[in-house]
Write a structure and sequence with these properties.
Length: about 300
């Protein structure tokens, strides 16, 4: 059985969450100087060790159980289907980086969910708690539009009344949530519990357009007929759908009580950050005053 020092059942990622980016060229027509790309940013929210089996064997003989679990990828969308935008293909073969660890997703884990069977033996007088690791992701689709007479690529914008807009209010995008039930199993003799936070220091996947979501947005009505038709054929309209509810950093398995605790945690983090900034500013001011006083003393002596 596992003897890991990490006993937390849940892990949530803080800081930079984007771990991969998939770029699909929808069309490129050099003869008219026009191109359209679909960008899919993949962000890791965290993972859970989901308990799939537990048994305490109080008998004098070993007990055998047959455990069925699901392995694979499932996605909750606002509008688009998995097949239409190739979310499974975008996840295939990517490496998941969290803290100082890297793990590559297998072809089984990034395919449609399937059922697997595991044989578990519980020795006499012992307990077994069996867990499966489940990763949680948020994906965001947006689009880059290029024209020959314009110096740079533009993000495709929403219907904007004929004026150029910037930021998420003007950018056309679609978000979805994806969970991957992995092939990883973890056996413990005592239950896991609690949640911990961590940051990512490993980014193994290339990001071709790291700042694409920050560039100017071109309103929908200024796109060419070809661009608008291409997007409509893939199920994209000129407006953003209503937000699905939870922000991207919130755990996907929260109860109402968990939500309250999560909000309190974030408030505490913000308060600590503000306190640290105020302390740093105060220290800088004290140092400036001390240096100014020394300069005055030296001037008086001279």
């Amino acid at each position: 059985m596992s003897r890991s020092s990490d006993r937390a059942q849940s892990f949530r990622l803080a800081g930079e969450r984007r771990i991969a980016q998939n770029v699909e060229l929808l069309y490129n027509m050099p003869e008219i100087g026009e191109s359209l790309r679909c960008i899919m940013d993949i962000r890791l929210i965290g993972y859970d060790w989901v308990r799939k089996f537990s048994h305490r064997n109080n008998s004098q003989v070993e007990v055998t159980h047959e455990l069925e679990t699901s392995v694979g990828l499932s996605t909750v969308h606002e509008h688009e289907s998995t097949q239409r935008w190739g979310i499974e293909a975008a996840f295939r073969g990517i490496s998941v980086g969290f803290e100082n660890t890297t793990r590559t997703l297998t072809s089984v884990e990034t395919s449609h969910t399937r059922t697997t069977r595991t044989r578990i033996v519980v020795p006499p007088g012992q307990a077994v708690f069996m867990y499966q690791r489940v990763f949680y992701f948020e994906t965001e689709l947006f689009f880059l539009y290029g024209q020959q007479w314009r110096p740079a690529l533009w993000t495709v914008g929403v219907q904007g009344g004929g004026h150029i807009v910037t930021g998420d209010m003007g950018r056309l995008f679609r978000t979805s949530r994806t969970s991957i039930e992995t092939e990883e199993r973890r056996s413990e003799d005592t239950p896991l519990h609690g949640q911990r936070m961590g940051t990512n220091t490993v980014f193994p996947n290339p990001i071709l357009f790291p700042h694409a979501h920050q560039v100017r947005a071109m309103p929908w009505e200024r796109l060419s007929h070809r661009a608008r038709t291409t997007l409509r054929q893939r199920g994209i309209s000129q407006y953003n759908p209503v937000s699905p509810g939870w922000p991207s950093f919130a755990p996907l398995c929260m109860s109402d009580e968990d939500v309250h605790l999560w909000e309190e945690f974030e408030t505490e983090q913000e308060t600590e950050k503000e306190t640290e900034q105020e302390a740093e500013q105060g220290a800088e001011q004290e140092m400036e005053q001390e240096i100014s006083g020394q300069e005055k003393d030296e001037s008086t002596e001279n």
